Amino acid sequence: MSTSADPVATLREFVRAKRTGTLVVREGERVAELRLALGNIEDAIFLDATGEKALYRALALPGATWSFEHRTTGTRRIRTPTEQILNAVPRVLLELERLREAFPDAHERPLLAVETDPGVPLTMSTSARALLVHLRGPILLDALLDRVPASDVEILSAVSELKQSGRVRVLASPKERVPLGTDEELASVARSIEQQKRLRIGSAVRLVFAGAPHRLAVISHAISCLEGAAASPHGVPPIPMPATVAFVPIHGAMQLDVTTCPLVPAYAPLWPMAMKGSFAVVRIDEAAEHLVDQACETAGLRPLDARNLLPDHDPVKVGDVAQLLLRALRT
To answer: How far apart are CA 21 and CA 178, in angstroms?
Structure first.
């Protein structure tokens, strides 16, 4: 096992020796495998990435250790000539470093595409346009790089283009907590809830947000940035069905349980069950409006429209979502 300050030089040595086997690259708990056949780079695996995407990521690992094992497989996912790859590596790694500098908090601040008028033409590259579908809901940069099969350089270049043109926003970090309200506001809301004697379970007050799945994802992220907010231990279901996503303290022992109801008509029979016993249902867009009205009527509730509660709210701004929650609880 060896540590090399120049991983490309290490790889080149094995290539020149026409070795067949697997170079194992370790950096902490992260392990990558680079597979050679007679000195040709034929495949690479690093976490969920394979092929050239995995190869460049492995070569970028700082202070990694290298070891060679005489094992390989018949899988071949890298077709680019080995010498061409080795010549390109320094340039690609420098470009990746440069592009990543534009996203210093990428590990904690998700990205989100800005919604635009569908009638307005999008003047952007094909690569940037292709990314928009993956940016409809909040997504961390590393998750985006894993999800899209294009090279990391192509993806980062496209995201930078979208950011510079104002087509993508960088959301808040859950580490930067925003209070739901002042102590006086929260005490007032708690008294109002108790005086109304509305249906609630113990000290928990359930509030349901109903909307298109990608818009609910934005609201859910903002709520995760509230002071004291805790994610549901059950996580978000893999299918678009109603689920409690977060718990937020209100005042004293009183707690807010936030439930999201994705407005996918196929799951409409489940909506009344999610709404029954809740304090209020807040509709954040006009998706499946008639079905929401029916579900609320079955649950004995009247839906509140977010645009009426707080007309100019921005769901990306945590403070705006906090005010939206307070107004829903006061209604």
So the answer is: 52
